[in-house]
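TODO from last week: model HTH marR-type domain-containing protein.
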Amino acid sequence: MERGPFESRHPLVGLVDETIRLNSRLRSVFAAARQESALNDSEQMVLNAVVEAEKAPTVAQIGRSMGQARQLVQRAANSLRDGGLIETLDNPDHKRAPLLCATEQGLALKRAIDARADAIAEDLLPAAEIESVREATLVLRALRRKLEAQLRRR
């Protein structure tokens, strides 16, 4: 294991640093997948959140989940709605916080972006390493969910 001058830091702090660095690197590598869509980073984030959600989310839920300001998510959601990529649905739990749902056009765009991203990933990562990436994804997802649950309890 690689050790650096900050090895005394809490492991979670080191993970934050590595995650930020990895996020920057991956965003630059995968920018080409989104290039034809004309979506900006915020719009891409919101479209992904809506399509990948287990149930239709609200703007506030996406903001909390992604660590983004509600206003930023709202602007992106408005743009996606105006572009016909998402629609709002009545929320039985909250009159002023509609649920967000992808339209067929939004789903088709997400699939096209994902297909281009898959092609980039195939070129980038040897097949022998796919299982380790899958395992890392599961570990990170589990950690994120634990942190989210703990934050909700606060």
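Done. The radius of gyration is 18 Å.
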